[in-house]
Amino acid sequence: MADEESDTDENMTEHDDNDSDYEEEKPVKSKRIKRSNGKWKLYYENKQFKKEWLELFPWVEEDHNDPKFAKCTACNKKIKAHKGILETHQKTKRHLKNLSGSDDIEDDEEQQQQQPKKEVKSEPRMNTAHAMPNMMGEDQFSFFTESPIDAAHQAVTTLIDKLVEKYHENRLENLKVQNDAMLQLNQERANLLREENQRKLELSMQKDEHNKEVLETHMKYLAQQHEIKINAMEDERDAKLKAVEQQLVFARQEYEKKVKLLDQQLQYIK
């Protein structure tokens, strides 16, 4: 009986210690992870190899089987076709070692293998089963303990979302401004076309009036010339008629003289 009482006392003391530990534990902060909208996924998927990289990176070749990848001739390795990734790759020790052909440069993986592993002190985990309840709700969001990396990732994601939203807002404003400018430009162009057509119409009317005046002047001149010609023809006809009349008068006089002469001769013969 004494042993049983001592065991129960020990269990009670252990249970009391655990209770005190649970009471001393602070509530663990929880963080909601938002599902990624994939805004930058298309940016990396649509990246393709560019011919200008051949001059910028002499050690790179185009992967003809997949234009989204490039090939390092020094490392014989496929790399994602992205300028930043290529710049990062050319600074690695393995690439520099393969490119120079010297063994003085140690590889990153070999250096990591040679470095002694640091002993990680295992800290006693807190039993958060009692401290943090099941936070899975109807929205099916997962919650876990907050860490600096997660906080930084969340801050960067929020900043990117805000920048993208601001970019779209600015783009909409720019599109509105461009649309208003295009409408104003089209209106001004229509006004200019209307004024130009009006000016052309006025010029054509003035030209028609001028041509009409020139035509009237020419018609008057032709009428005068025609009248002069008619008068000249009439004068010429009158002159010819007078000449014919004079010839007839002269011929009659000659005829009368000859008749008188014949009469005289006939009388003389008788």
Write the layout of secondary structure elements.
Blueprint: H1 2-24, E1 30-32, H2 41-45, H3 53-56, E2 60-62, E3 69-72, E4 77-80, H4 83-90, H5 93-100, H6 108-114, H7 128-131, E5 143-145, H8 148-269
Antiparallel strand pairs: 1-5, 2-3, 3-4
Give structural attributes.
single chain; 270 residues; mainly alpha; 3-stranded antiparallel β-sheet; two-stranded antiparallel sheet; 5 strands; rod-shaped; disordered N terminus; BED-type domain-containing protein; coiled coil
What's a concise summary of this model?
The chain has helices at about 1-25, 40-45, 55, 85-90, 95-100, 110-115, 130, 150-270; strands at about 30, 60, 70, 75-80, 145.
Shape: rod-shaped
Whole-number average pLDDT? 75
Low-pLDDT sequence parts: 1-6, 8-36, 116-145
Radius of gyration: 60 Å
- Pairing-aware structural class of the strands and helices? mainly alpha
Describe this structure in words.
This protein is mostly helical and 270 residues long. It is built from eight helices and five strands. The strands form two sheets. A three-stranded antiparallel beta sheet has the order 2-3-4, with helices on one face. The termini are far apart. Residues 1-6, 8-36 and 116-145 have low confidence and may be disordered.
